[in-house]
What does this fold into?
Amino acid sequence: MLDWDKMRIFHCVAKVGSFTHAAEKLGMSQSAVSRQVSALEADLKLKLFSRHARGLLLTEVGEQLYRTAHLMHWELQQVESQMSESKDVPAGPLLVTTTVGLGSTWLISRINEFITLYPTIELEIKLQDAELDLAMREADVAIRLHRPTQSDMIQRKLFTVHFHIYASKEYLKKNGSPKNASDLDNHQIITFGEPAPAFLGDINCLERLGRNDNSARPVTLKVNSIYGMMQAARSNIGVAMLPDYAAREAPELERVLDQVSLPEFETYFVYPPTLKNTKRVNVFRDFLIQKARQWEY
It folds into this structure.
């Protein structure tokens, strides 16, 4: 039978990729952590890590064991949190994942109120455009810019994301405002570049918008982040197509070419059925729904 204490230490080492960092998180010495991992390898008669100068890499069997250990660790966290919540107080860890653009603008600007309301919830937000797997417990809940592809996931629509064309007031004062899409030929253009995530649709449409032959106009700057595109527009670099959730956080930006039809998509709060009765998930869901309604109207 596997020793859970050794598995717990192995899980921490695998997660951070270093004996030193794992020792700091666990409050142990580096040598003690290394001994426990070596003992686990001896018990299994298998090599779990490849050790090299840049750190630790999981072997194939190490990857398999880490996935199992991660699920065990997550299940224990849920049990501990449910016990903490037995007094009707939402408590315990809550790992939220969403895109860099939505998370760094719309979500972060509102999250302090949630932290104040629920100080016993240990909130962690992971911002990345690559989606974490909720079924594999890579995160507890997600805010997704599309319907979940996994049919068993619980979903709740938050709001519709609309795109518009923006530039800074200073840039427009200096360069004039485009009157129609073909006027974009006379402006500096900011786009996302390739490859663009599928959920962002035609995020690079300014490269061809208003051109009858569909050829690409010159682009002044490509930056593979919605937040980066917004910051570039704020810095007077040029004209960008941005989601309203980002541009509303930047009062120095001005909307242009309102008559042009641009992409839009729905945003969803998503979580696995195993968390449907979890208080910390439910209060976070209700908080997001309230903020989404206030924002949209």
Remarks:
- The chain has a mean pLDDT of 86.
